[in-house]
Amino acid sequence: DAGVIQSPRHEVTEMGQEVTLRCKPISGHNSLFWYRQTMMRGLELLIYFNNNVPIDDSGMPEDRFSAKMPNASFSTLKIQPSEPRDSAVYFCASSPLLDNEQFFGPGTRLTVL
Amino acid sequence: QKEVEQDPGPLSVPEGAIVSLNCTYSNSAFQYFMWYRQYSRKGPELLMYTYSSGNKEDGRFTAQVDKSSKYISLFIRDSQPSDSATYLCAMREAGTYKYIFGTGTRLKVLA
After folding, report:
1. CA B50 to CA B65: how far, in whole Å?
2. Chain B residues within 8 A (CB-CB) of chain A?
3. Using one digit for the tens of pLDDT, what is the confidence trace for B42-100?
4. Helix, strand or coil for residue B80?
5. Which chain B residues are within 8 Å of A90, Cβ to Cβ?
């Protein structure tokens, strides 16, 4: 199995631009999680889905952030408009069920200038 | 005050040493406790998973939870240079799936 796939691996953009991060979970996993990691705040859960349905988005920092899961094999996290303080590594993780082990992708390193 | 506190390190030890990594927390409702290992530029990977209080051992790794003190520990015996990584603790309440992570402790095992 290829594991969780994230794209792009690196993204550099300018303030005000729209950014879309993509995630392909492990086949057969029913739950998907989006995290953001910074030195200051560590790893923070942004939103998670179960069976493609958003369950808890209380970690999404602002309305500029949105996430979708149109099918079991694809999810996006969008930031519009982006700001320098959004610079971080964004991880996607999937698990067979909500309370099972989460498998993390390699992350997308986002830099907003 | 953060819900989960973890010393950022770095912690440097010689090969073969016993390593002790710790987290404290403030939410007495946390029931599930995890330790993750994260290599540089990689995603975290689960090392140990413990429910409620007690000890759990897996090879060279032992996880301890002391709910009365709101304190969890990860011990690594016979540490190896390949154990050099950042170790993250994580925890959640029963009935929720929102994991709260510590900021991580960076460990260096010197050959």
Report:
1. 8
2. 41-46, 49, 88, 90, 96-104
3. 999 999 999 888 899 999 999 999 999 999 999 999 999 999 999 999 999 988 888 99
4. coil
5. none
